[in-house]
Description:
Layout: H1 2-17, H2 22-33, H3 38-44, H4 54-89, H5 109-123, E1 127-128, E2 134-136, H6 137-140, E3 159-160, E4 179-181, H7 187-196, E5 200-209, E6 221-231, H8 236-251, E7 257-261, E8 267-276, E9 299-308, H9 310-315, E10 324-331, H10 332-340, H11 353-356
Parallel strand pairs: 1-5
Antiparallel strand pairs: 2-4, 3-4, 5-6, 6-10, 7-8, 8-9, 9-10
The chain binds adenosine-5'-[phenylalaninyl-phosphate].
Amino acid sequence: MENQLKNLQTAALKALEGIKDEKSLKDLEVQYLGRKGKLTEILRGLKNLPDEKKPMMGQLSNKTKATLEEALAQKLTALAKGKLEKELSGEFFDTTIPGTAREIGHIHPLCQVQEEVERIFYQMGFAIADGPEVESEYYNFEGLNISKDHPARDMQDTFFIANKEHKDSSHRAGGHGRMVLRTHTSPVQVRMLEKYGAPTRVIIPGRVFRNEATDASHEHTFNQVEGLLIDKDISMGHLKGVMAEFLTRLFGKPVKVRFRPGYFPFVEPGLELDFSCLLCEGTGKKEDCPCRVCKKTGWVEFMGAGMTHEKVLEAGGVDPKKYQGWAFGFGLTRLTMMRHGITDIRLLASGDLRFSRQF
Ligand code: FA5
């Protein structure tokens, strides 16, 4: 009997090792310690033993039973703990560990400057408009008094859209010519006049495209801001006043502007507008000023402008005898470079976060 008890304990403890869940544990308990279990069966043989052996065997069977009960209880605890850990493993978090900061994006420097420009012109009573980036040859050129064979077309190297050619490119004949990526924002001048007529006072910021080699100050895709003011008795004096006010508000210090003659087929007379250098305050010779911006001239080239050509007014359906005005176009990308001291235009559209995080 003694051997029977030892063998039973060994077998039960071995079976216990392989138990993986509470149900199997319960079954094992019934199998060994239950009323019809293996231990009970052995104990039934106690009564057949000689009296002198009974106490010793009684003690031994109690010890075996206690050992097995203890092992079963320990296994139950271990199983419950494992189950709990498994349940929590997917959700566990330590509230004392610092969280991962979520990176918040910000507006691109080009858009920041565009918003400033829009705000200032809006305060001066200008509307803000938009136009298509894929434009007809008509609006990009003919409507702006740039005829088919006009050399001015070579001034702006054009991307043409394949398979988009009209037979008759004359607007009046109902055709709009081939489709192009607009080379400037000026086509929206004609669209605005067609749509709203005169008087009108509007700026048109937008992306433009030119088929040209890129370098530190030239991009194939860049942004311009067009301005158009058409009303009665409008002169270049108004243009000078508006631009001086705009630049002064933008840079937060007094800025002077000057005109130089310039040529654009859609204005007459045409001019280039420069503003006084902010580094040397227009002197061109401030002692410690490197004047890399104005190259020691005191003036920074800023934009093309002029009195709107009467052909443009006519294309927009406005009577040039009643109304006149001016238009301008400046490079927003270059203005952004000036604003932030950016020395290579290609950085702006590079998508390099090391660059844009600085603004
Ligand atoms: C024009 O595009 C005319 N439409 C401007 C105009 C409007 C004149 C209304 C008269 C009346 P221009 O080609 O000079 O002009 O371009 C205007 C500005 O765009 C330039 O002063 C310059 O700041 C910017 N620009 C021109 N080419 C590039 C380029 N490749 N990369 C970046 N900026 C450019």
